[in-house]
Design a protein that fits this description.
CATH class of the largest domain: Mainly Beta
Family: Belongs to the polysaccharide monooxygenase AA9 family.
EC number: 1.14.99.56
Protein name: AA9 family lytic polysaccharide monooxygenase
Structural class: mainly beta
Number of strands: 16
Order of helices and strands: HEEEHEEEEHEEEEHEHEEEE
Number of helices: 5
Helix content: under 10%
Strand content: 15-25%
Catalytic activity: [(1->4)-beta-D-glucosyl]n+m + reduced acceptor + O2 = 4-dehydro-beta-D-glucosyl-[(1->4)-beta-D-glucosyl]n-1 + [(1->4)-beta-D-glucosyl]m + acceptor + H2O
Enzyme class: oxidoreductase
CATH architecture of the largest domain: Distorted Sandwich
Distance between the termini: 19 Å
Length: about 375
Amino acid sequence: MKFSALATILASASAAYAHATVRAVFINGVDQGNGENTYIRSPPNNSPVKDLTSSDVACNVNNVAVSKTLEVAAGDVITFEWSHDARNDDIIDSSHKGPVMVYVAPTSSNGAGAVWTKLFQSVYDSQWATDTLIANKGHVSITVPDLEAGEYLFRPEIVALHESDTAYNVNSARGVQLYMECIQFKVTSSGSVALTDGIDFKTAYTYSDKGLVYNLYNEDPTTYVAPGGAVFSIAVAGQAGIGPVPAAGSNPSTSAAVPATSAAATTSAVAPATTEAAVTTSVAAPATTEAASTSRAALPTSKMTTVTVRSSSAAVPTVTSAVATPSAAPAQGNSGAAVAKYYQCGGASYTGPTNCAEGTTCVVQNPYYSQCL
C-alpha cells in the first residue's frame, strides 16, 4: 500500500495522546497556577481545530469569557506553558511539526474580525519550532508591548503540519491541525500603542495558503512561510521566545517595550544561552531584529488579579472519531525496553526501543513516525 493511502487510513486513528493545550502562564517567571477555565478560555479537550472556515480558529471551540484576568504592564514577560494531558508532561507528539506563534487582540472584539496582531513566531532553524518547544518543556515567552491600557486576549498557537499535505475541505480525515487558546489579560500601564490594522483569521487562514496546505515530507522546510503574515512592528525586540521560564521576579528583556525595527522577521526571539546546554540535539538560535532598549524598574513577583465574573455559557460540540484498523510497522534494529501504548516505536532516524508493550503493535503513521497502538 502506498504511503499516502496508508496515511489516509491511519489519520482517523490520531487521538488526543498527540495533542496539546496551554494550561498555565508565568508572569516575569512567577507561576500563575493552572488557568484552565479560570483565566484561560479552555476547550473541553486538547483536540485541534481543522476547519479553516470556522470561527473556532480564533479562540478554539469554547470562546467564552472566564472569571479571572491576569494583570501585566508594558515590558513584563509572559510565558505560556503548553502541555499534553497535564502540566509538566510530554507537551505534544514529536511528529506534530510546525511553527509556534503568539497573537494579541482587544478582549472587546472577542476575537472576531481584523483584530489580531502577531507578536511572535518561530518557524524553522535547523529544526522545527515545535521540536525546540518540546525540548524546552513547552515554554514560550513574549514581552508585553507598549499597549494602551485595557483588556486583551493573548493567543499562543501551534500549527501542526504532519497531515497538512491534503486540505481538510478535500479530505476531512487530514488537514493542518491548529492548536490555540485565548488567555485574558489586563494591561495596566498607560502605553501609546493601539491595535488597529490586525488580521482576520477568516481571510488570513485559508485553504489557498501554502503555509496551511503543505507537504511536510517533500518540501524544503527552510522555504516554509508561516500563515498570518510577518510579526508586527509593535513586537518588542529581543523577546525570550521558546526557552526556559525566566527566574521568578525577573525581566529578561530589560526593555521598556521597545518595538522591533522590522516587521518582516521570520522568527522573533533567541532562546537564552542556557537553552542549548539543556537540549540533546543541536539547535541554532533564530535570528532576531534589534532595537535599542532602556532599563526598567524591578517588577513585583506576583501579578495575578481576580476581576468581575462574567456569566455566560456556550454549547460544547461533541467530538467523535472513527478509528480504522492500522497496519503493523516493519521491525527495526533497536529493541530495548517495551514501549508504552501511544508512544513512538519507529520511523526515520529513530533509534529508541521498538518492542511495544503487551497487547499493542508498532504501527506506521508516516515515514518518520511509528507508534504503539
